[in-house]
Design goal:
38% of the residues lie in helices and 32% in strands. By secondary structure, it is α+β, with helices and mostly antiparallel strands.
């Protein structure tokens, strides 16, 4: 049986992009390396992966460490040309999505007006909340102009990447509201994604949308009320997840798995199977990528 891949370039591009878009948070580069080994075309991989990697980083609020400061990479601080800015420290930088390297730093001027005072108050209160609830997270408050109105966009990200423990997770929040007098309408989304890959391959993605009203009096009052709202909704979301997990029976777990585990509940010993003479006729362990050797059902 021939192992030759007869896919056209267009078909390869479609498969590469589709698989990369599905990469869980914290695992993009692992998926990229596995695909690179399979495709055997570094130029094609880098050409197609660059745009997908940028989408992956911005969608997952990737955390970048720059001179002792954390900066979230999002679509809200994207200046174009792979340049992003830090609204707190007022600088911008060039970011290579594939290598994760930041270069070409320069000042990013922001008007010090009333809106910036409100943004700063929100960011300070939010930072205190994130520091006390997320062991490895950060946040940013961005100001945008929409239909001649000032809009605040709040991004929160808590990343937990534990590849040696066979799991990775992301908790992120995205909130938007206008800077208008008296009352403002707040909309938000809480998103959690977990991938567990020891003895199984389990993916879980849970999202919740929130709509609420806040009174707008002054920057300090709005910052306090907004953080209270986020804390309340985060706690509700967390408690609901725990309650749902406890309610899941063993039968339900088997039904929702993408593939059922063996009846014996034991994993397949791939190394032992590969030594079997009947398999050696069809499978070469040299040609099989390491990622497939690690797969379990």
């Amino acid at each position: 049986m021939s192992n030759k891949c007869d896919l056209s370039k267009e078909e390869k591009v479609w498969v590469i992009c589709r698989l990369l878009y599905q990469a869980p948070p914290g695992e993009f580069y692992s998926v990229f390396e596995d695909l690179r080994i399979l495709v055997q075309d570094d130029d094609l991989m880098r050409q197609e992966a660059a745009q997908v990697c940028a989408h992956h980083n911005k969608n997952n609020f990737t955390l970048v460490r720059i001179e002792g400061t954390n900066v979230l990479v999002t679509r809200y601080n994207d200046l174009g040309g792979n340049r992003f800015f830090d609204p707190k420290n007022k600088f911008s930088f060039k970011f290579d999505h594939l290598s994760g390297i930041s270069t070409k730093f320069q000042l990013h001027r922001v008007a010090w007006d009333e809106t910036e005072l409100w943004r700063t108050a929100l960011n300070s209160a939010l930072k205190a909340y994130v520091n006390s609830h997320f062991t490895s997270g950060d946040c940013s408050v961005f100001r945008k102009t929409l239909k001649n109105r000032q809009v605040f966009v709040v991004c929160i990200a808590g990343h937990q990447y534990k590849p040696l423990g066979f799991w990775n997770a992301l908790w992120k929040g995205e909130w938007t509201f206008s800077q208008i007098p008296v009352i403002t309408h707040v909309t938000g989304t809480i998103h959690m994604q977990v991938h567990y890959f020891k003895d199984a391959n389990l993916h879980m993605t849970v999202c919740k949308t929130v709509e609420e009203i806040l009174h707008v009096i002054d920057p300090a009052q709005l910052a306090i009320d907004f953080v209270k709202l986020i804390e309340t909704e985060d706690n509700k979301f967390h408690i609901a997840l725990l309650e749902n997990f406890q309610a899941l029976t063993d039968e339900i777990w088997r039904k929702i798995l993408r593939r059922q585990l063996p009846v014996t509940r034991t994993i397949i010993n791939w190394s032992k199977l590969l030594t079997n003479q009947s398999m050696k006729a069809n499978i070469s362990s040299r040609e099989m990528p390491l990622s497939l050797l690690k797969c379990t059902i």
